[in-house]
């Protein structure tokens, strides 16, 4: 899952990003509304965690732009105000969910994951295919009943492949969904991660390479 965190309190923004990355999400961070508009113009995000009171461009205007562009991106709006009228106003301009500060990080994670599931065709919370069972909420992976320990990027790649339901996923798509914008697109990080993931999942291999196209399960 690719997430953009937009928050002008830099310590909070960085803390949220770090926590989301630990949950195997690819996360970009910006600290004002103008930078947010630049990012959404060039990157496809599943979820934007958007502070409402932003410098340069207000969070409301960022949200309106996402809606105007017809993007499938879901918006989780954050605000220091817990007033009901503020929450209603935020939802009316296009936010998909609303979370007042201060918040429990576990709730933020749950809301981001729930919104991420709504950016694509509805799938069950636990993904299963070819003997593999992946639970994004518990961060657990099993193959034929045996638990497998994966690094965050391995987990993220496996989740993207399972969510594709047998369709081929290109290396570029994996890079887009599982890594943030600081990753060099010309590295072989995707190939290396897939090789390691194959080894950990064991035999017979379930990740198939489609020459010239990508990978599928």
Automatic annotation (TrEMBL):
Domain Response regulatory residues, every copy: 2-116
SMART domains per record: REC, Trans_reg_C
GO molecular function annotations of the record: phosphorelay response regulator activity; transcription cis-regulatory region binding
Keywords in alphabetical order: DNA-binding, Phosphoprotein, Transcription, Transcription regulation, Two-component regulatory system
GO terms under cellular component: cytosol; protein-DNA complex
Residues in the signal sequence: none
Keyword Glycoprotein in annotation: no
DNA-binding region: 124-217
Residues carrying 4-aspartylphosphate: 51
Gene Ontology biological-process entries: regulation of DNA-templated transcription
Pfam family, one: Trans_reg_C
Domain OmpR/PhoB-type residues, every copy: 124-217
Protein's job: Member of the two-component regulatory system CutS/CutR, involved in the regulation of copper metabolism. CutR suppresses a defective melC1 gene, encoding a putative copper-transfer gene, probably by altering copper metabolism.
Protein name per Swiss-Prot or TrEMBL: Transcriptional regulatory protein CutR
Species whose genome carries this gene: Streptomyces antioxidans
